[in-house]
Amino acid sequence: MSLAKNLIYRHTAVVLLTIVAGCTSTVKSQTLPSSSPPVVPTANPATPSPSPTSAPAVSSKVMHLLKTKECIACNLKGIDLHEADLTGANLTDADLERANLSGAILIGADLRDAEVRHVNLSDANLSDANLDDADLKEANLQGANLTSANLSKADLEKANLITANLSQATLNEADLKEANLTGANIAGVNLSAAELEDTIMPDGSIRTTRD
Fold first, then answer.
1. pLDDT at residue 9 tops 80
2. Which residues contact 179 (CB under 8 A, 6 or more apart)?
3. Distance CA 102, CA 112 (A)
4. Buried b (16+ CB within 10 A) or exposed e, 176-192
5. pTM here?
């Protein structure tokens, strides 16, 4: 073979090898994974912790009651009015079921036809209050001052009247079934027209209307 041909063959081989090498490099660059850094998931923004439960705002009815001493037929279920001064308040037909009125001052208050079931009236001052036909079933009146209060036709079934002062109170046709009057002051009280059935009297004896 002549020297010229030999040089041509060598040159052609080099060119072919260069082309093959370039193609191989291109394929590798397409198949290899990207060298960019992995994406780090961004943490979710911190959920703000709930703010402490704020004390419930005093209802407008209660504000009105404390200001004007009047809340006729109001719904005051479960309200906390312990030691509140409600002297002479008009609470006719109000719903006070399960309210806390312990130590409250209710002198001369009008609670006619009021719903006072399961209410805490321990140590409350209800002297001269009008509780005519009020529902006081299972109310806590322990130590309450009910001097000269009107409890005519009141429902006091299972009421706690331990050590309550009922002197001169009116209990005409009141329902005192299973009420507890242990240690209560009933001086000047006429119970002849009251309904007594398994009622615990001030001396601890149990009395019924039939006795």
1. no
2. 156, 157, 158, 159, 160, 161, 199, 200
3. 19
4. bbbbbbbebbbeebebe
5. 0.71
What's the per-residue H, E or C state across the chain? CCHHHHHHHHHHHHHHHHHHHHHHHHHHHHHCCCCCCCCCCCCCCCCCCCCCCCCCCCCHHHHHHHHHCECCCCECCCCECCCCECCCCECCCCECCCCECCCCECCCCECCCCECCCCECCCCECCCCECCCCECCCCECCCCECCCCECCCCECCCCECCCCECCCCECCCCECCCCECCCCECCCCCCCCCECCCEECCCCCEECCCC
Give the angle subtended at the CA of 205 by the CAs of 203 and 210, to the nearest 5°: 125
**How many CB atoms within 10 Å of residue 8?**
12
pLDDT in tens, 65-118: 999 999 999 999 999 999 999 999 999 999 999 999 999 999 999 999 999 999
- Check whether 62 has a pLDDT greater than 80: yes
| pLDDT score at 76 | 94
Q: What is the dihedral of CA 79, 80, 82, 86, to 10 degrees?
A: -40
Asked if residue 24 has pLDDT above 70, the reply is: no
